[in-house]
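Milestone 3.1: sequence recovery, worked example.
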């Protein structure tokens, strides 16, 4: 699971070429089995310094992080069904 922390850095890009540093990143197994995946927070919301990726599969996290289609990404078969909640916080606004 620690490898997922590295992937989360790909989800946010720095503004004006600055390096974005996270204050925290949390990756946990999702308890929302069967619920649709969902992104909350970030730019244009009431919580621009925090983004939550809820109930994402590893395949979706990797695809989203690298701006790739799910058909262009592969993961171990056991990781397609596993779901994760990723929460990121930054000291300043983040961009999607």
């Amino acid at each position: 699971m620690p490898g997922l922390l590295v992937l989360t850095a790909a989800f946010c890009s720095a503004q004006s070429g600055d390096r974005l540093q996270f204050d925290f990143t949390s990756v946990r197994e999702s308890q929302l089995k069967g619920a649709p995946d969902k992104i909350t927070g970030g730019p244009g919301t009431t919580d621009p310094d925090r983004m939550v990726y809820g109930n994402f599969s590893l395949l979706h996290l990797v695809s989203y992080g690298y701006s790739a289609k799910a058909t262009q990404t592969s993961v171990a078969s056991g990781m397609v069904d596993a779901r994760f909640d990723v929460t990121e916080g930054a000291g300043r606004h983040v961009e999607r």
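The chain has one domain: 2-90. The two ends are 23 Å apart (CA to CA).
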